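Weekly sync, protein design subgroup
Attendees: M.S., D.O., the rotation student, P.L. (late)

Item 1: inverse folding check
M.S. brought a backbone from last month's batch and wanted to see whether the design step gives back something sensible before we order anything. D.O. pointed out we never logged the input encoding, so this time it goes straight into the notes. Structure tokens as presented (340 positions):
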């Protein structure tokens, strides 16, 4: 099976397993795990932010980031296809009393005016006040799209002028940085809180981090424990993340090239070709066929894809597939879409 469902499906490499086994450990609830502490300091410095909090999942670091910026009963504004809106099981409402309003885009990159229009800080006694805006870079369901730096700067200015928080879901910020050459600290400077994932393209088995000011991260450390997600000797997992930062960032350009190979192969056959991918995600329109049917048929032929909408499927490239796999998978999917 060529598994293109997600870049989360990778297994740790032998070098990573070795690093995990060798990690120095301590109790992280007491903030005594040296490997976790070193990772938190390292990533915070990388993004030019004061502090970091190692978390079990991106969904948890997004929850904590939004929770730190939005009071119960206030709203967070985001894209209708955002991970926080679609893929976190309503956590922001269920666990933090946060409501949401969304703007709609094709590819996850909004016009500034769309955000401006929704923004209502201090809405008074009748309307919901905006606590924060959330952006996703790269945008997952938008097809791995990159938020242009100028757009991020404009949204950041807008939010700061309005006194509203700004959270970045940077699960795949690594892919954006590799594709654009933008420094991580340039991204970090624009946001109040940033979440990043080690378990996507970087290939670690588990782990995410929330970054922000020392004060925010201290509050979030308490809230993480409140949610039952304080962990103990987590240094083995932090060692995997640290190994991934050392060895798996530059190679993301291989994943981007492989996504291009997949998209081109599909386009040779498919009447509705996918857009050329900017990073490691290809969203393929399925024409008249339901996405669920395309996913089932592709699986019969040895290609695993995922459903992202009624008529859209997604392929994601990663550490455990090569260009040859992607060429073959693209041919299979393209032929399948071209059948009457
Ligand atoms: C994967 C992902 C996350 C976090 O997912 P977890 O499975 O909770 O780690 C957050 N945001 C985006 C855009 C993602 O793709």
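Designed sequence read out in the meeting:
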């Amino acid at each position: 099976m060529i598994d293109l469902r997600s870049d989360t499906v990778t297994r740790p490499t032998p070098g990573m397993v070795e690093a995990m086994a060798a990690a120095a450990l301590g109790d992280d609830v007491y903030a005594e795990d040296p490997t976790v502490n070193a990772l938190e300091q390292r990533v915070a410095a990388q993004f030019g932010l004061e502090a970091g909090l190692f978390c079990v999942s991106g969904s948890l670091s997004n929850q904590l980031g939004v929770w730190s910026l939005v009071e119960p009963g206030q709203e967070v504004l985001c894209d209708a296809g955002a991970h926080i809106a679609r893929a976190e099981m309503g956590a922001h409402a269920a666990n933090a009393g946060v409501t949401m309003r969304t703007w709609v885009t094709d590819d996850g990159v909004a016009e500034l005016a769309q955000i401006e229009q929704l923004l209502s800080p201090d809405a008074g006694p009748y309307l919901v006040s905006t606590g924060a805006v959330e952006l996703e870079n790269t945008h997952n369901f938008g097809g791995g799209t990159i938020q242009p730096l100028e757009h991020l700067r404009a949204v950041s200015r807008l939010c700061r002028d309005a006194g509203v928080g700004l959270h970045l879901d940077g699960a795949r910020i690594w892919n954006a940085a590799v594709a654009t050459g933008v420094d991580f600290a340039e991204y970090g400077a624009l946001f109040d809180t940033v979440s990043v994932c080690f378990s996507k393209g970087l290939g670690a088995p588990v782990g995410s981090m929330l970054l922000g000011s020392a004060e925010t991260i201290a509050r979030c450390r308490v809230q993480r424990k409140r949610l039952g997600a304080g962990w103990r000797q987590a240094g083995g997992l932090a060692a995997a993340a640290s190994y991934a930062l050392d060895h798996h960032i530059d190679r993301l350009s291989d994943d981007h090239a492989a996504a291009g190979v997949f998209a081109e192969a599909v386009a040779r056959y498919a009447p509705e070709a996918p857009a050329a991918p900017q990073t490691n995600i290809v969203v393929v329109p399925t024409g008249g066929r339901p996405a669920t049917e395309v996913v089932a048929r592709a699986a019969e032929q040895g290609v695993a894809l995922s459903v992202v909408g009624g008529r859209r499927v997604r392929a994601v490239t990663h550490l455990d597939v090569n260009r040859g796999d992607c060429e073959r998978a693209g041919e299979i999917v393209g032929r399948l879409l071209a059948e009457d």
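Discussion: The first helix runs from residue 14 to 21. The mean pLDDT is 97.
Action: P.L. to compare against the previous round before Friday.
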